[in-house]
Design a protein that fits this description.
Layout lengths: L7 E5 L5 E2 L7 H5 L4 E6 L18 E2 L13 E3 L5 E3 L7 E2 L1 E3 L9 E5 L4 E9 L1 H6 L8 E6 H4 L15 E10 L10 E11 L11 E4 L2 H4 E3 L10 E8 L7 E7 L2 E9 L24 E6 L6 E10 L6 E5 L1
Antiparallel strand pairs: 1-21, 2-3, 3-20, 4-7, 5-6, 6-20, 7-19, 8-9, 9-21, 10-16, 10-20, 11-12, 11-19, 12-13, 13-14, 13-15, 16-17, 17-18
């Protein structure tokens, strides 16, 4: 699939790829043909702590929306090399960021993943501390966003709609955000289709949103699950073809959680507030950046993040011209 990236120079596909040993590849990735390791990070020397915004890093101090980016002091390394994120809501790291801090610009630097894949992070956090914290203070999370929207690329425009009427995908792979009884043996997963003209189409938010129903987005695990120990949080994305539906499935320690979501190929449908079979088909036309963040005073430790795909053919690595 070809995209016109406007002011960007696409310098090629992600260069550090390896054919992983089959024993290292999750079974659900192997079954869908995702056997190429296109991204693998254990964080040592992977993060642009100096905020240079130059190509070559795997993680950046993200600030696409102009909020202050995280400070290097917000992070620390454990003796085993795992990364502890101590910062709050404005402490995200991502596989891409805006090239010029504090400027409205479509130029970005980093990596975005397209064409499907299996995405996984090994994470631990103090669940008891999260339950005591007000939700407005944030929560531990591993998620993905469309670079088409994050960088304001022309491809976020919904074809056939008025100028500025956009649509884009968000994938919440792990959000520990439930409270009280609802938090027992659960964490949040979700797919969001955001759409509309900013602060215009929907009065209740910046954009309109279609999300999974509650029963489909709560990942149920054992009530005895200890979130203070490392667990693997995964997301499998298989694009639709003319012959087969596409689908998404979330995973916890290599076991599927929540409902499998399917869709046909996207065919330029009209916007709708309803959840249709085609609602999340837009994912197949966009590229995801990965993000990690947590709430205020809620350290989250990440040991590794990995992506397996069929190839790097549909990925984007970009730096400004």
């Amino acid at each position: 699939m070809l995209f016109t990236l406007g002011l960007f120079l696409v310098i090629g596909i992600y260069s550090k790829v390896t054919r992983a040993e089959s024993s290292d590849i999750p079974e659900q990735a192997q079954q869908t043909g995702y056997t190429v390791s296109t991204f693998s990070s254990t964080f040592t020397d992977d993060i642009d702590f100096q905020n240079t915004r130059q190509a070559g890093y795997k993680w950046y101090l993200e600030d696409f929306y102009g909020q202050p980016s995280a400070n290097p002091e917000d992070f620390e390394f454990m003796p085993d090399g795992a990364l502890v994120i101590n910062s709050g809501i404005q402490g995200e790291i991502a596989t891409a960021t805006r090239y010029r801090p504090g400027k409205a610009s479509r130029q970005w630097v980093g990596a975005a993943f397209g064409g499907g894949g299996y995405f996984e992070a090994e994470i631990k956090f103090d669940s008891a501390a999260v339950l005591k914290q007000p939700r407005k203070e944030g929560w531990p999370a591993f998620w993905a966003m469309s670079i088409e929207h994050r960088a304001g690329l022309p491809e976020e425009q919904w074809i056939g709609q008025d100028k500025g009427f956009v649509h884009f995908i968000e994938v919440d792979i792990m959000e520990y955000l439930y409270k009280g009884f609802y938090a027992i043996g659960k964490y949040g997963t979700n797919l969001h289709l955001w759409y509309g003209q900013y602060l215009k189409t929907c009065s209740e938010g910046a954009f309109c949103k279609v999300s999974l129903p509650y029963l489909d987005r709560a990942a149920k695990v054992s009530d005895s699950t200890d979130f203070n120990q490392f667990h693997k949080y995964g997301f499998l994305w298989v694009p639709a073809t003319g012959e087969k539906k596409g689908f998404a499935q979330f995973y916890f320690d290599n076991h599927p959680v929540g409902k499998k979501v399917t869709w046909p190929q996207f065919a330029k449908q009209e916007p709708s507030a309803k959840l249709w079979p085609w609602t999340y088909a837009l994912l197949d036309r966009q590229h995801l950046i990965l993000l990690l963040g947590t709430g205020n005073g809620l350290p989250m430790t990440v040991r590794a993040v990995n992506v397996w795909q069929k190839s790097t053919q549909d990925n984007l690595i970009s730096q400004p011209q």
